[in-house]
Amino acid sequence: MRIVVAIIFVVILASLGSALFYLMRDKGKSSKTVYALTVRIGLSVVLFLFLLFANWMGWIQATGSLR
C-alpha cells in the first residue's frame, strides 16, 4: 500500500515539475502548462479517493487521535 501511494505521489510531483518547466520555457503561450496542472489535480483527486476506499476496505487504518 505504501508503495502505491508513494508512486502516485511521485507522479504528482513530476507533473507539477513539468508544469513549471513548460511555464518557464513557453512563457504561457501553449496549453502544456494547463494540461500538466490538470493532470496533477486529477491524480490528487484519484489518490484521495483511493485512500478513502482503502480505509473503507480496511487495507489501511487511521492511527491518529482527534483529541
Automatic annotation (TrEMBL):
<dbReference type="InterPro" id="IPR021313">
    <property type="entry name" value="DUF2909"/>
</dbReference>
<dbReference type="Pfam" id="PF11137">
    <property type="entry name" value="DUF2909"/>
</dbReference>
<feature type="transmembrane region" description="Helical">
    <location>
        <begin position="35"/>
        <end position="57"/>
    </location>
</feature>
<keyword id="KW-0812">Transmembrane</keyword>
<keyword id="KW-1133">Transmembrane helix</keyword>
<keyword id="KW-0472">Membrane</keyword>
<protein>
    <recommendedName>
        <fullName>Twin transmembrane helix small protein</fullName>
    </recommendedName>
</protein>
